[in-house]
């Protein structure tokens, strides 16, 4: 295990953006698989791998780079020390500036990678945005208080993404709920006919 940690630590030091993006992608894929198998009760053999890959790609190309860059901006602006006033400023900016904007971009990007019509994507963002933002405020301010106060900068994306396995499960379910309901309705109608 020590060798794996050394390799990870070296990769994080040498290639922070790439390493954080890959780990974010992997953890977002995990959240999607949990959503499909646990919440949506799909058997592991019937997991929609295309959907998982789409979710993972948003992690690789959007969430990982955005979070890594954002945390660096916060550290450069306020410093990397866990003083209470610094932590509170970081959490306030993170939750009242970054999070609302990022949630909108994230939901839009997910619709784009899923190949949805732009009008459908906009309608789904409008439908889901407020619920996701409210759910965000129930979890993330508390996580970020601990993250910014206790965790060194290079590990902050990892900590967020480990907690985000549950968050990504929720996002996957929330953004796919209408598709899952439609599929179940079609299956029920076919059985009844």
Automatic annotation (TrEMBL):
Spans through the membrane: 53-75, 96-113
Keywords: Membrane, Transmembrane, Transmembrane helix
Entries under InterPro entries matching the protein: Mpv17_PMP22
Subcellular location(s) of the protein: Membrane
Entry membrane topology: Multi-pass membrane protein
PANTHER family named in the record: PEROXISOMAL MEMBRANE PROTEIN 2, PXMP2 MPV17 (PTHR11266), PROTEIN MPV17 (PTHR11266:SF17)
Name under which the protein is recorded: Mitochondrial inner membrane protein Mpv17
């Amino acid at each position: 295990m020590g060798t794996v940690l050394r390799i990870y630590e070296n990769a994080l030091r040498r290639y922070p953006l790439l390493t954080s993006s890959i780990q974010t992608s992997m953890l977002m894929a995990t959240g999607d698989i949990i959503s499909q198998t646990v919440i949506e009760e799909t058997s592991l053999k019937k997991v929609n791998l295309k959907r998982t890959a789409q979710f993972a790609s948003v992690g690789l190309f959007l969430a990982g780079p955005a979070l890594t860059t954002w945390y660096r901006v916060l550290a450069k602006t306020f410093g990397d020390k866990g003083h209470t006033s610094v932590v509170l400023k970081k959490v306030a900016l993170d939750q009242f500036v970054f999070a609302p904007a990022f949630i909108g971009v994230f939901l839009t990007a997910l619709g784009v990678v899923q190949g949805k019509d732009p009008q459908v994507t906009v309608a789904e963002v409008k439908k889901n945005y407020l619920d996701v933002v409210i759910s965000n405020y129930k979890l993330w301010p508390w996580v970020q208080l601990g993250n910014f106060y206790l965790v060194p900068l290079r590990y902050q994306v990892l900590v967020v993404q480990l907690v985000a396995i549950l968050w990504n499960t929720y996002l996957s379910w929330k953004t796919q709920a209408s598709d899952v309901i439609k599929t179940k309705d079609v299956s029920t109608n076919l059985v009844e006919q």
